[in-house]
Amino acid sequence: MSLPPGFLDELRSRTSLSQVAGRKVMWDMRKSNQAKGDMWAPCPFHQEKTASFHVDDRKGFYYCFGCHAKGDAIGFVKDTENVDFMEAVRILAAEAGMPMPERDPQAQQKADRRQQLAEVMEMAVQFFRLQLKMGAGAAARDYLAGRGLAEAGQERFEIGFAPASWQALLEHLTSKGVEEELILDCGLCRRSTKPGGRPYDAFRNRIMFPIRDPRGRCIAFGGRAMDPADDAKYLNSQDTELFDKSRVLYHHGPAREAAGKGKPLIVAEGYMDVIALAMAGFDASVAPLGTAVTEHHLQLLWRIADEPIIALDGDGAGLRAAYRTIDVALPLLEAGKSLRFALMPEGMDPDDLLRAKGPVAVQEILDRALPMVQLLWQRETEGRVFDSPERRASLDKALREKIMLIRDPSIRSHYGEAIKELRWALFSPRRQEGGSARQGFGRGGRWQPPASARQTTRASLLVAAGEGAHQRLREALILATVICTPQVFDDVEGQLEGMTCSDPEHERLRGLILRHAGQAGEALRARLEAEAGGDALEKLLSLPHVALAPAVRRPGDPDIARMTIAEELSKLEAERGLNAEVREAAEDLAGVADEAVTWRLGQAAEERQRALRSQTEDTTEYDLAENGARISRDERERLEKLLNGITFSKPAR
After folding, report:
1. Highest-scoring range by mean pLDDT, 71-85, 149-163, 309-323, 548-562
2. Residue 376, burial from CB neighbour count under 10 angstroms (0-12, 13-18, 19+)
3. Do 347 and 316 touch, CB atoms closer than 8 A?
């Protein structure tokens, strides 16, 4: 449901958080200052005797110094009353005497429809679970027991059984009053091709795995055939209004929660691998659903963890799957977001390894997970002989084509350096003479990034001057624009996901926006304030260059918002490209300062000066409405002084 602008602000202004929380806590009046709205009490969210739960009534936020629970009045009602966001708003609005706005009929109709489908899916879950416990499910129970999955695991993952009947589920649901059309729209049944024929069950004689979305709603099923002669060993629900297999991960919600507590995110190939891993303590485990890893899967994974571990079967198919994933991931890489690959022993999957050697063996494999660049190198070199210039040139071409897929110039540069080190180790004369030319590798042969950035280069003002400040300014404006006009989110979601944030606080806010952007403007802001803290949002929106921007001064204007975001993203990309050229040239210069290198540095420096001059005026103010972000006079003079002190000469031909 969409709330009108200002509704939540008005609700908060009419609501006293100390009064709301006072219904659930006993204030410690010795520690509290009621006149200033500074209230303390034992926390209602965890057992304690001391007063570590603090309410700032003026700001409208609470925080527990013991369990770190935090939020506003809406969040407090939501968590203590176990209701959703809109119900919490409704409760507080009734207490404040504010009528709730009427629902958008179309949006409500769509939400009601999805709720109907989800309820039918839940009925199917219960039907399949019951069938597993009955006589028809005996063979399925034996199979699960043989795979080491005890009854506790079956209950935890709600595993069921679809009997070998053409219409068992259909008849069960219709007897409960469910319309056939709803059952068909859930993908639980399929239409008969025979004239006048009734629909028939989509799953028959299969062990059933409910597939739930991050909110816990059952949106699909996966079925494992009990008949070895069945055409499909594993069968997933067809795509429906609730389910798109290219955008869904099995065990997503519990894995996200476990990863938030520090567990490594593991991507396995199938249901049984995920279940076995989770039961062995690797709770942050997920799997794609009958399809190769897609771009959407990677974006979902990176929202959960910065460096998921792809755990693949130890056979040719597993290795090929890893190589396909590399090709999908390369264009999407950004600073801090990558993949590692854990390859199981030959002929084993994670479930096999757990049953054979236990969790310790799996942990050892995960600890030795390869960075993506090493697996890329392995793919292009394994089993090949490079005993001629032509073969070496072919290797160089293949690697160059893969590296050029990387859009981020900084990561592309680092991949180039890593490949250069690996190539040197392969073709080094000392290596070919039998020596130990293992530069770039650490203990146990594990690859480590080369330390090619010398101290003098890292300290260079030429590399550091003005590079980070402008990126942070532009990132702040982009995030603020989306917060002020969230209706443009669908148009810029991909660009927002691909944006590299140089500021950790911006990275955190960007993640929260991506997670909660489906909510309306005020609801989104309330959610961000609850999870990031009101101070973080207030700090972002009060920055001078943000507060003066038209997109922030006029929230809710989608045209201005789209224009602002597009312009700032374009400038970010241009600046990062220039910075990468200067940085690369500076690193080369730190090694051997030949004429070609100094010429490259000069060209990059001149290009950077032109870009800076196009944005610079003799002022320290920011006026994004007219000329875009400007740098200060001091920054410009410092950079120009540095550049003017370097003499550049064109290399002789």
Report:
1. 149-163
2. buried
3. no
Q: Do 30 and 38 touch, CB atoms closer than 8 A? A: no
What value does the mean pLDDT take over residues 557-573?
85
Query: Which residue in 560, 555, 545 sits closest to 615, CA to CA?
Result: 545
Class of the 247-368 domain?
Answer: alpha beta
Q: Which of 462, 416, 455, 459 is nearest to 601 (CA)?
A: 462
Least confident window among 29-43, 54-68, 186-200, 600-614: 600-614
Q: Write the CA distances from 34 to 20, 28, 50, 442, integer angstroms.
A: 14, 10, 18, 60
Q: Which residue has the higher pLDDT, 18 or 588?
A: 18
What is the rounded CA–CA span in Å between residue 181 and residue 137? 28
In terms of Cα–Cα distance, which of 610, 622, 616 is closest to 636?
Answer: 616
Q: Would you call 343 helix, strand, or coil by DSSP?
A: strand
The yes-or-no verdict on residue 174 having pLDDT over 80 is yes
Tokens of 112: 């009601």
**Residue 331 binned pLDDT confidence (cut-offs 50, 70, 90):** very high
Least confident of 126-135, 140-149, 318-327, 525-534: 525-534
At residue 240, φ and ψ (nearest 5 deg) are -135, -175
The domains of the chain are located at 7-96, 106-243, 247-368, 380-452, 464-644
Q: Look at the chain and count its residues.
A: 653
> Which contacts of 137-146 are long-range, i.e. CB under 8 A and separated by 24 or more positions?
137/161, 137/163, 139/226, 140/207, 140/226, 143/207, 143/226, 144/207
Task: Please state, as a whole number, how many other Cβ atoms lie within 10 Å of the Cβ of residue 390.
Answer: 9
Q: Tell me the fold of 7-96.
A: DNA Primase; Chain A (3.90.580)
596-617 burial by CB neighbour count: b if 16+ within 10 A, else e?
A: ebbbbbbebbeebbeebeeebe
2 residue type, one letter: S
The reply to whether the predicted model has a pTM over 0.85 is no
- pLDDT above 60 for 600: no
Alpha carbon distance 577, 580 (integer Å): 5
Residue 261 φ/ψ, nearest 5 degrees: -95, 10
What is the mean pLDDT of the segment spanning 299-306? 88
| CATH 3.90.980.10 for domain 106-243 | yes
Question: H/E element holding 357?
Answer: helix 350-357
Within this chain, domains 106-243 and 247-368 share the same CATH topology:
no
First to last CA, the chain: 68
